[in-house]
Every structure is written in structure tokens, then in C-alpha cells.
Amino acid sequence: MNFKNGLRSLCAVAVLGVAAVAQAADYPQGPVSMVISFPPGNSADMVGRTLAQHLETSLKTPVVVENKGGAGGVIGMDYVVRAKPDGQTIAVTSLSPVSVIPAVKKLPYDPATQLVPLSLLAQGPMVIVVPKNSPFNTLQELIDYAKANPGKLNYGSLGPGTISQMTTELFAAAAGIDLTEIPYKGSAQALTDMIGGQIDLLFDGNASAMRQIEAGTVKGLAVTIPKRSPFMPDTPAISETPIAGLQDFSSQGWMGAFAPAGTPPDVVARLHKEIQNALQTKEVIDRYAASGLLAVGSETPQAFAEFVERDRNRWQGAAKMLGLSPSN
Which pLDDT does position 165 carry in this prediction? Predict the structure, then answer.
């Protein structure tokens, strides 16, 4: 490379660097679209909408929430990965379309390379719920009946590979029972059918399940963590059921924020900072807690990326244990 060509290259790099800094300094340029990859009424919807209200203030621009549900969150995330990577489109989703479903199904996108993790937002356990008129008042009663009647009990799930489906199948394997799956697009629809008596049990997120338990429309049999949840102290932990396979059973859901791959690092850093500030406000903490969720941020975007990778590896291991493998 001669001197003139080298100088031109250095100038080009410098111009690109200045442009990137300018882009980050000018961010955001107009309204930000927050895509929630589940229907309204889902816990991710509450988490995202609560966050959006705070980002509107800190970013000084409207944050327009769009629900793009379906396929366990895959439809919404597929939309996000195809968006322009400028920070004007971000996603709020659960673990299902980024770490659980990829363990059992080939997706139209690669969550490991086509998404930039911004921050963890909230965590909460799954809750095993049954209709209010169900004959089962304890998890042990349900398991005993299922063992005596293989396949007779049906369960609602949010679709193949979602955390609700995978958790139920892991539970069934640990308890030594057979259950029949009925898939739904979202927990709101599954809970509606449960209230109507169309399904026998559901592993639902703490946020939506807790409201129905408090309203008396369903009964909570157990939370899927080793100890009782501080938000639901009257609901037993799954480990309290005297079955060896359930003593260490744990399945905890989480919600997080993502951006399309290629989003400028400075924009990612800005979004991460504003999200952390929101998660530390009393309003957000209390709103999440009212739904049985802990507001949990991430120290850095990289820390959240590492968290997602560990979670993805965990679910890949679970899929192998169940004899599942990615397929179309």
C-alpha cells in the first residue's frame, strides 16, 4: 500500500469513527419502537410497558409499544432481527424465543448472532395452577392421579419449546407421569380455558398466575423453585412434594431487552444505562413485585450476554435429556 492509499484508508476509518460517535450522540432520532414478542396480558407485556413509560422520559422521545405475539415469541423476535440496527427498534421478550425454543426447533434467526443483549429486566418462577373446581388440592394428589391414569390429564402450554412446555415435560419426566399437551399462543388464552375447565393444569409465569390465584379463579399447587416465593408464601415450593426427582427441581422465567445485531456500541451502552436507571426506581420495582417478579438488571450488556448463553446451554442440556433435538 502506497502512502496516498494508506492516507485515504486512515481518513475513511476516521470518518466512520466520527460518524458512529455522532450517531450515538444524536440518539434517539425520533420515536423508539419497543416490540413485545407476546400478546397483551402476558407478563412480558407488563414488564415492557412499564419500562417503556420510563424510557420515554429518559430518552425524551415516544416509545411506541407493539405486541407481535405468536409461535412462543418467535414471530416478534424474527421481526426485530430484521429491523435496522440503529437502536430505534428494541425488543422485550422472555427466555423462550432466545434460549429455550432454539434447543428444540430451528428458527428463522440465530439468537446468538442476530441479537444484541441489552439487559435482564425481571425474574420469577413458574407456578403450577389448576382450575378452582379441580379435585386436586396438592401437587401430590395430582401426581398420584396422573400415575393411575396415564395421559388422561391435559396441560396448557405456550407452544413447543417454550418454557411452559419444556418445564411441564421436565416435571412429568421427574415425577414419572404422562400428560397430554394443548398448545396456546399466550398464557392469557390458556388461563381463560383453564378457568372454563377445558384444561387440567398449566405451568404459568408467576406474574399472570398470581393474579388469578388471588382472584380465586384458579388454585396454585406449587412454585417451581426450591423455596417458597416471597410473593406467594402460601403456595408450596415444588421441592416440598416428597418425590426424589422433584427435590432439586427448578425452573425460573426471565424477561430481557434486546436490539438487532449491529446496533452501535454507544447506543447499546446508552440503552443499557437508561434501562438500569428505570429498574432502580420504586415505581418499577413495586409494579414488578405486584406481579410476583423481581426487577433484576445487568451490570453490563456483556454480563447479560453471558447470562443468556448459560441459560441457552442449560436448556440445550434439558432438551437432550428429554430426547429432543432442533427440527423444523
Answer: 87
